[in-house]
């Protein structure tokens, strides 16, 4: 053995810690209940996972976060055992961390930029799971004192929609002494977080707790208030004297396939299906009054996160067979890998390279099947994905009693069409500066899906944060 | 919370209540509706606003007990509150001086017809209201309608009051007499609206109907309220509730309204097993 080799051998090798898995409910069990699938880290797992952080001099992870959470700092506090401190560190930038920790696509954001991932190992530090752990812990164990609020500035801002964009903006502004009123059309606060994302991915109690925290900070909430109907944006500005209005109404107008049979009974938009199941608690029917078709054989059209949510909700409502019909292959599914993985584990069937041509109905007007076209992948389209093209003459039928259309949402025109001088693009989305959220109308900002088209919760939160900063700038309270 | 200030039984299974909802009252226009919920586990149901008082900050609702929510509401008393009232929703009625407007109301449809009739009357139209019900006891708000009509005609299926027959026969009579009619507005059960259109179509009389599809959010977000108009899918909650009667697919609407018949019965039976509410809400014979 040479001297050099000897040196190498003596040097104690640092044991390599693998990325820590988060415990989950067993797939067979969870397919029949609405409890949360992912159970969260315990203290040992969290410490072990946090210790994997390399504390890079240049923390790329922060640049991957739309709200720029100080990730290495909070991980350092976890390592030191200061979980409350870590939670506050996260909250400096993220007003809804318990939600983000659950529904953010970390694999394409902070964790994609993690150096541990960059080395080609595909084992980034589990930032999202740790964000969830520390903020859950703080919520249960008490978070110490609320932050000291500055003196009221006398300014007031109206927020249209209580989804992730609006709540984030409200949280940021109230901490700067701006009075904030959030107007929500539905009877519950949270927007897509309560009507769209299912209980088993994001428990509603967590959304309520996050909203309550904002309420304690002084944010005023008005439910059952449809801006555009109950009051217009112009009335908020002129009559109610709001200094600014932020529009964060989301992408709430479901698209349909425009194929025959789409208005048969048993055919739902994903929005309706999920709203009945989540917001209206139809899974408790008849303890809750709202019914939902409890299909035996359910077909879902689409391949995004909402399609996965719909399929997995149908399964939990008691369906014997749930099939996702998607026109490309597994590789092109737009849903998060984790959601697809969970769906597969739970037994959701995938009918790939297939597109619905017609929904077949019976005399009474109920869906009984879907007539589908077989597809193949052709040349890449503008999105870079290979375009699905029909294989002539190859069609087939799937039997079903419920069909859920989950092919996306367009901009809901209610607010743009009732607001004077608010510019929209050809899809009906509000035109707003991507950096500031400033719209064509004086004192009006907008952000989230109503500007970008359907995207993610965290991007909406990022937009809310940017608009909040831009408003502070305009008001001169930076 | 939205307090019930007044409540009365105005017919068998038919109730009228005045509810405190200042923001809705302020913004409401004829033809618009609200969505309400009675309690924490309640469903959201749409009801057309029958009247409002902006100064008092109230709206008036009239409903027939048909499902779990409307039965539940039937047991509520002044002092009770609805947990949610949201609105006004839907596109308001297009009101202008058309000339002569015939307002046809059947059964509970007379309630939503009232603000429209009033609007048409105040816009200077010659308003002929034709109201109908199965029997005299089911006729509602005839006096209210009378005050905002130039002429009023009433029909009952059994002849117990007014003309013996259907509202469509009365309307046909007006057409046959050569009455100049510029617009017909019809609100009532789906078969009635369909029958009205069958009468007005040959005479080419523009006819507006108000549809009552199943809804959840009422702001165009869910699409539960899909109706077909001119072969195109429309959302009843935002594109409607009023549509060109000649273009509406009434058969589809009927089928879609029956979508939850089974579960509705389950919910209603469960509700009946656990009666609630006080005696005062049920005068004898109602």
Characterize this entry briefly.
The complex is a heterodimer of chains A (478) and B (286). Helix content of chain A is 34%, strand content 17%.
What does this protein look like?
The complex is a heterodimer of chains A (478) and B (286). Chain A contains 19 helices and 15 strands. Chain A is of the alpha/beta class. Chain A has three domains: 125 residues, Alpha-helical ferredoxin (Fumarate Reductase Iron-sulfur Protein, Chain B, domain 2, Orthogonal Bundle); 161 residues, FAD/NAD(P)-binding domain; 156 residues, 3-Layer(bba) Sandwich (FAD/NAD(P)-binding domain). In chain A, the strands form four sheets. Chain A has a five-stranded parallel beta sheet. A five-stranded parallel beta sheet of chain A has the order 6-13-7-8-9. In chain A, a hairpin with a 5-residue loop joins strand 11 and strand 12. In chain A, helix 7 packs antiparallel against helix 10 and helix 15 packs across helix 16. The longest helix of chain A has 19 residues. The relative contact order of chain A is 0.12. The model of chain A has no long low-confidence stretch (mean pLDDT 92). Chain B is of the alpha/beta class and 286 residues long. Chain B has two domains: 100 residues, Translation factors (Elongation Factor Tu (Ef-tu), domain 3, Beta Barrel); 111 residues, Rossmann fold, CATH 3.40.50. Helix content of chain B is 26%, strand content 31%. Chain B has eight helices and 16 strands. In chain B, the strands form three sheets. Chain B has a seven-stranded antiparallel beta sheet. A seven-stranded mixed beta sheet of chain B has the order 11-10-9-8-12-13-16, with helices on both faces. Chain B has a two-stranded antiparallel ribbon with strand order 14-15. In chain B, strand 3 and strand 4 form a beta hairpin. The longest helix of chain B has 13 residues. The relative contact order of chain B is 0.15. The C terminus of chain B is likely disordered. At the A-B interface, strand 5 and helix 15 of A face helix 1, strand 7, helix 7 and helix 8 of B.
């Amino acid at each position: 053995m040479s001297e050099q080799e000897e040196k190498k051998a003596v040097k104690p090798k640092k044991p390599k810690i693998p990325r820590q898995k988060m415990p989950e409910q067993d797939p067979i069990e969870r397919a029949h209940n609405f409890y949360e699938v992912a159970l969260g880290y315990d203290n040992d797992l969290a410490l072990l996972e946090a210790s994997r952080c390399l504390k890079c001099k240049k923390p790329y992870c922060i640049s991957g976060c739309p709200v720029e959470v100080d990730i290495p700092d909070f991980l350092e506090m976890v390592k030191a055992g200061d979980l409350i401190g870590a939670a506050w560190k996260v909250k400096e930038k993220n007003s809804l961390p318990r939600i983000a920790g659950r529904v953010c696509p970390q694999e394409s954001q902070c964790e994609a930029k993690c150096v541990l991932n960059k080395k080609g190992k595909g084992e980034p530090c589990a930032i999202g799971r740790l964000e969830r752990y520390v903020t859950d812990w703080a919520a249960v164990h008490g978070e110490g004192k609320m932050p000291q609020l500055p003196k009221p500035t006398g300014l007031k801002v109206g927020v249209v929609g209580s989804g992730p964009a609006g709540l984030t903006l409200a949280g940021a502004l109230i901490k700067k002494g701006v009075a904030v009123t959030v107007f929500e059309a539905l009877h519950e606060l949270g927007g897509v977080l309560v009507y769209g994302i299912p209980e088993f991915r994001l428990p509603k109690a967590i959304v309520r707790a996050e909203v309550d925290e904002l309420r304690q900070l002084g944010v005023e909430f008005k439910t059952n208030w449809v801006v555009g109907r109950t009051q217009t944006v112009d009335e908020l500005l002129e009559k109610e004297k709001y200094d600014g209005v932020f529009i964060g109404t989301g992408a709430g107008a479901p698209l349909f396939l425009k194929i025959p049979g789409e208005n048969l009974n048993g055919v739902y938009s994903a929005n309706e299906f999920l709203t009945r199941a989540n917001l209206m608690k139809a899974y408790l029917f008849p303890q809750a009054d709202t019914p939902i078709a409890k299909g035996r054989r359910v077909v879902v059209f689409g391949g995004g996160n909402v399609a996965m949510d719909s399929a997995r909700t149908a399964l939990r409502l008691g369906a014997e067979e749930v099939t996702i019909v998607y026109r490309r292959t597994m590789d092109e599914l737009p849903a998060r890998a984790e959601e697809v993985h969970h769906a597969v584990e739970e037994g959701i069937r995938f009918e790939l390279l297939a597109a619905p041509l017609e929904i077949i109905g019976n005399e009474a007007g109920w869906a009984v099947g879907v007539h589908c076209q077989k597809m193949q992948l052709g040349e890449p389209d503008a999105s870079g994905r290979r375009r699905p093209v029909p294989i002539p003459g190859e069609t087939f039928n799937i039997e079903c009693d419920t069909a859920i259309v989950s092919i996306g949402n367009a901009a809901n025109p209610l607010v743009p069409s009732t607001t004077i001088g608010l510019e929209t693009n050809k899809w009906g989305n509000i035109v707003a500066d991507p950096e500031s959220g400033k719209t064509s109308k004086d004192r009006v900002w907008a952000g989230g899906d109503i500007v970008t088209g359907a995207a993610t919760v965290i991007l909406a939160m990022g937009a809310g944060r940017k608009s909040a900063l831009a408003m502070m700038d305009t008001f001169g309270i930076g | 919370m939205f307090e019930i200030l007044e409540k009365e039984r105005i017919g068998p299974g038919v109730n009228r209540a005045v509810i405190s909802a200042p923001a809705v009252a302020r913004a409401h226009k004829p033809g618009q509706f609200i969505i309400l919920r009675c309690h924490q586990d309640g469903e959201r149901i749409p009801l057309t606003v029958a009247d409002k008082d902006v100064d008092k900050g109230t709206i008036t609702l009239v409903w027939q007990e048909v499902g779990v929510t409307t039965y539940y509401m039937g047991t509520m008393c002044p002092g009770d509150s609805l947990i949610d009232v949201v609105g006004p929703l839907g596109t308001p009625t297009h009101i202008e001086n058309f000339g002569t407007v015939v307002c046809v109301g059947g059964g509970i449809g007379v309630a939503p017809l009232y603000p429209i009739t009033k609007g048409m009357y105040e816009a200077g139209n010659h308003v002929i209201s034709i109201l109908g019900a199965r029997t005299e006891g089911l006729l509602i708000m005839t006096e209210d309608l009378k005050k905002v009509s130039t002429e009023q005609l009433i029909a009952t299926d059994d002849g117990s009051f007014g003309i013996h027959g259907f509202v469509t026969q009365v309307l046909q009579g007006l057409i046959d007499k050569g009455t100049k009619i510029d617009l017909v507005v019809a609100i009532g059960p789906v078969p009635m609206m369909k029958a009205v259109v069958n009468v007005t179509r040959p005479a080419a009389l523009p006819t507006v109907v108000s549809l009552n599809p199943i809804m959840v959010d009422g702001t165009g977000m869910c699409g539960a309220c899909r109706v077909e108009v001119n072969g195109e899918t429309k959302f009843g909650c935002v594109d409607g509730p009023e549509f060109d009667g000649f273009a509406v697919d009434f058969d589809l609407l009927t089928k879609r309204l029956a979508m939850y018949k089974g579960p509705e019965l389950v919910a209603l039976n469960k509700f009946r097993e656990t009666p609630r509410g006080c005696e005062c809400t049920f005068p004898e014979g109602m």
